[in-house]
Amino acid sequence: MKNAFLTTILLTMAQISGITQNSSDIKNISEAVHSFAQAGDQQDADRLDTILHPQFRAVVHRAFGSADMKLMDKATYLQSIRDKKIGGDTREVHLLQVDMSNNIATVKAIFQGKKLRFITYISLVKLANGTWLVVDDMPDIEKV
Hints:
The chain has 144 residues and is of the alpha+beta class. It has one domain (2-143): Nuclear Transport Factor 2, Chain: A. It is built from 3 helices and 6 strands; from the N terminus they run ααββαββββ. The chain is globular and about 40 Å long.
């Protein structure tokens, strides 16, 4: 009886610890997504460099009626920011859904700007130090 009670207490503590970790991760994921959007809005390539994973890519499929898909690796994406070809708006960020499993997460969000509206799917990974980095951005872009 004593062992069953102790086991129940330990399992409950583990679940509470998991919830705390999960909510801490959710907060950090949200902050990473907001930072990603804000650095893009400010066309701050140096800040984006710290938010994006080295293997980052952006996938833009059939934007503005186009029939093609464009892939941008991290270097190309950052250069497009530096050249002011992308970014430069002030967008509100609304997280619609966050799915997380241990060290990976996906976020569905709306980035609402003055000229464009993005419904975007963002993939993130958690590094060993606990930092969440953006690995993939797949926006559906429409004019407002």
